[in-house]
Write a structure and sequence with these properties.
Strand order of the largest sheet: 22-23-24-25-26-27
Helix content: under 10%
Oligomer: single chain
Shape: globular
Strand content: over 45%
Low-confidence stretches: 2-25
Distance between the termini: 33 Å
Largest sheet: 6 strands, antiparallel
Length: 346
């Protein structure tokens, strides 16, 4: 399943572009760099923007090729400008309110608001190419990387490597070799039952804490999955060569078009970014209405945007939809603003 997704889609996804126990993930105070001033600028990034998140204080965090930006509702600040020139793909606010930034080539940066700490393969990270970051229910931080994934418990890393069509824990302490073509873990989630789901550029896996199992439909594995999410009802959504929903026993396919990203908003609507054809330069932002998702033909609103591939989607607290593409965009329900001083046609 999903084995026919155009390879350029997921390579572009990762290369152009994955009651708690508290205080588990505070890193040791070494390898730190203090930064006292942020580079405040008028506009957001103009290059590939892979991930957009909003923190508990309402700030928007943007991981881009130009660095990690913070938008406070008035202005942008390039937070990593004085720390690293790496391309950043992912950002996470943990349960303490601290930030984690994943880069391609320079590993992970932990930011407590005052100083940065860099984690690389020297500290035990599986790879220095980090695509996604996720915090589980007990406060462990997971990093989806080239070659597998790492789990950090605040003290040390446990690594899980992709080896061909399988994924297993590696206890040797070695890092993943530089893989070309890459074998990225694109997204990681923990579902309501405590199982973990990994979407990769190879197979999709389910991990029960002991064993990784290839996720299949009628005996065929889901492969080249860009994103996996769990909705409010406990359904699992997968996208890549189409959009699929899995309710624990039944699969439902919503489209066969190439889907790069899937996201559920606060109302239960499902948003996707997709291309009608592999050659399409401008992608479609689609919204599947929550009340119609159980219908054979759900209600779908499509917005054809002249902004290229969409790498990330976020619903902000004010209800606006933020989009990561070649730069960052905000959709207010009527117009799309690109933070470059003009409105985008649709």
């Amino acid at each position: 399943m999903m084995k026919h997704v155009p390879q350029y889609v997921l390579l572009m996804f990762v290369l152009c572009t994955s009651c708690k126990e508290q205080n588990k993930t505070e890193p040791p105070k070494n390898n730190t760099k203090s930064v006292t001033e942020d580079a405040v600028i008028s506009f957001g990034p103009s290059s590939v923007t892979r991930t957009i998140k909003q923190d508990r204080n309402g700030n928007i965090w943007i991981a881009s090729w130009e660095g990690v930006f913070r938008y406070d509702g008035q202005s942008f600040a390039n937070i990593t400008n004085k720390v690293s020139s790496a391309r950043f793909f992912s950002v996470l606010e943990d349960n303490k309110g601290d930030l984690w930034f994943g880069s391609i080539g320079s590993g992970v940066y932990y930011y407590d608001g005052k100083s940065f700490q860099n984690f690389t393969t020297r500290e035990g990270l599986i790879s220095n190419e980090i695509v996604c970051i996720y915090e589980d229910e007990i406060g462990n931080i997971w990093f989806g990387a080239n070659g597998g994934a790492s789990r950090y418990d605040g003290m040390s890393f446990r690594n899980y490597m992709i080896n061909g069509d399988v994924m297993n824990e590696d206890r040797t302490g070695k890092s993943s070799p530089d893989m070309r073509p890459p074998k990225f873990v694109n997204s990681i989630i923990e579902d309501k039952t405590g199982k973990f789901w990994f979407s990769t550029s190879g197979n999709a896996f389910v991990y029960d804490g002991k064993t990784f199992t290839v996720f299949t439909n009628k005996g065929k594995p889901f492969t080249n999955v860009g994103t996996i999410i769990e909705d409010k009802k406990g359904n699992i959504w997968l996208c890549g060569d189409g959009l699929w929903r899995y309710d624990g026993s039944t699969f439902t396919n919503f489209t066969r078009n190439s889907v790069l990203y899937v996201y559920e908003d606060s109302h239960g609507n499902i948003w996707t970014s997709s291309a009608n054809r592999p050659s399409d330069q401008n992608w479609v932002l689609s919204r599947y209405e929550a009340k119609s998702l159980d219908n054979k033909k759900p209600t779908v609103t499509e917005m054809k945007l002249e902004i290229g591939p969409l790498f990330g989607i976020l619903e902000a607290y004010d209800g606006s939809i933020w989009l990561g593409s070649d730069g960052v965009y905000r959709y207010d329900g009527k117009t799309i603003h690109d933070f470059k001083g003009k409105e985008v046609k649709r």
